[in-house]
Specification:
Length: about 475
């Protein structure tokens, strides 16, 4: 069924495809459901590779919004969408009720295409699928204020943020998580393939956390790696896989990991409840968190003393619920983000931080006052090089005022040519480490083929370490 809506500038064509009229693959079947359009839906996507395939036709080359009306069985579910065999993103079902989720601004050529809805989490009913004419990302999203949330930020930090603002919409910075810094297998593998190093180094504060020290003699070295990379002209970003207080970590055999303390940041490995801390029921828990914050603040201040600004990404992926800081819902999380922000900024005066919020859901966003950059972590299937346009567009709608948008973690490196066609300029991408880049000591093409990595790193639209300006010398000047 097609509808035509007249707007002020152009007519917009909307085409609705009912799931029961599509090709059903796997164990899926048509079910009667009075809440679905036409009284029918398709489900339940309960087995691996269950999918529904739609054959669609679009009238012209351009960008289209793909909307899915679906209901999760037993709660909200995330599942995959493929166009002509290429994964373009994932969509979210309603929580036991039908809801619409849209993958925005998908590039399609005129003519026929196959759109597949495929099991990811599974367990949902698909009612219908809608195609609406759209447009590429507008240039207006790249106009951002060059002001940090912390007015007391160091000059080096302000200079870095100005540089990111100036680059935004023109360049994407290459990035790589590499726990051993310049000496890592990941950076060596990238250099072997491309002849270049990434502009941005991703590191973690995990081994500085006191609760880790309570279980083992772990040594934090990433701050030293950050200082070394900074001296080479690079930019550093830190996440923090924050282990829960040691007295709350489950013993071996009871958590979701073989050694629960090593993965003490996972909600399934601890009895810790952030909500009880934030509502005052667990003062001992709050004291334990304060001890952790003190330890990390010490390291952040060490970086500040060395003139190193940090793209600071704590409390990441909260909405997923797999980390303890996200297991008690958005209200507790937002309160805690603000508490952490104020403690590091107002108590410890860590003025070298650019705060990157990576909560993964707008309902979890703590507010513009406490955020400088918004990011998302996306792990596409191997060799699926989509620009992830819909996720980018969604992030531009989080804040009340325009913020820089970044791909804060990725498994597969997006194809820069597709990004440019869609006018999608992630501020940076930062590929996760280990198997996403190396295997058996050499570069691995399992997720991103070597030829694609070369293409991205050699693009004029992507910045590498050798192309960065001397940020430490830009204090008080425009980049």
């Amino acid at each position: 069924m097609s509808l035509l809506l007249s707007g002020m500038a152009h007519a917009t064509e909307i085409t609705v495809y009912e799931a029961e009229d599509a090709l059903l693959l796997g164990s899926n079947e048509i079910v009667s459901d009075g809440d679905a359009s036409g009284g029918k839906a398709v489900g339940s996507f309960s087995e691996e590779n269950d999918c529904v395939a739609f054959l669609i036709t679009v009238p012209e080359n351009g960008f289209y919004d793909l909307s899915f009306t679906c209901k999760g069985i037993g709660g909200e579910k995330y599942n995959y969408v493929f166009v002509d065999g290429t994964q373009i993103g994932e969509f979210r079902s309603g929580k036991d009720t039908y809801a619409v989720d849209t993958l925005q601004k998908t590039e399609l050529a005129a003519g026929a295409h196959e759109v597949r809805v495929q099991e990811g989490w599974g367990w949902f009913y698909l009612d219908c699928f809608t195609v609406t004419q759209s447009s590429a990302m507008p240039d207006s999203v790249y106009t951002v204020k060059q002001e940090l949330s912390n007015p007391s930020a160091t000059e080096e930090t302000k200079a870095l943020y100005r540089f990111l603002c100036d680059c935004y919409g023109k360049y994407t910075l290459s990035g790589q998580y590499a726990p051993d810094g310049l000496h890592s297998a990941e950076l060596k593998a990238i250099h072997d393939v491309t002849g270049k190093y990434p502009a941005l180094l991703g590191l973690d504060m995990a081994n500085y956390t006191p609760s880790r020290h309570a279980f083992a003699d772990v040594v934090g070295e990433t701050v030293d790696h950050a200082i070394e990379f900074h001296k080479q002209g690079g930019i550093v970003t830190f996440s923090w896989h924050w282990s829960a207080p040691p007295n709350t970590v489950l013993p071996k055999g009871q958590g979701v990991s073989e050694i629960p303390w090593w993965h003490g940041y996972l909600a399934g490995n601890t009895t810790f409840h952030l909500g009880r801390v934030m509502n005052g029921e667990d003062p001992d828990g709050k004291m334990a968190l304060l001890q952790d914050i003190h330890a990390i603040a010490t390291e952040l201040k060490r970086l500040e003393e060395e003139g190193v600004p940090v793209l600071w990404r704590p409390l990441h992926e909260a909405a997923g619920g797999w980390f303890w800081w996200g297991s008690d819902g958005p209200d507790a999380y937002k309160q805690f983000w603000i508490y952490l922000y104020k403690t590091l900024t107002d108590v410890y005066h860590c003025n070298n931080l650019i705060w990157v919020c990576n909560c993964q859901d707008p309902a979890w966003y703590p507010g513009d006052e406490y955020v400088d950059i918004v990011g998302v972590d996306i792990y596409a299937n191997p060799r699926q090089y989509s620009p992830q346009t819909s996720s980018f567009a969604d992030l531009t709608e989080y804040p009340g005022t325009r913020k820089i948008v970044t791909l804060s973690e990725n498994g597969v490196v997006p194809d820069i040519e597709q990004c440019l066609r869609a006018n999608v300029h992630w501020s940076w991408f930062c590929t996760w480490n280990e198997e996403y880049v190396v295997r058996d000591g050499a570069y691995s093409s399992e997720y991103t083929e070597a030829s694609m990595l070369q293409k991205v790193y050699e693009s004029d639209a992507v910045l590498t370490l050798d192309e960065l300006p001397a940020l430490m010398d830009q204090s008080g000047t425009d980049s």
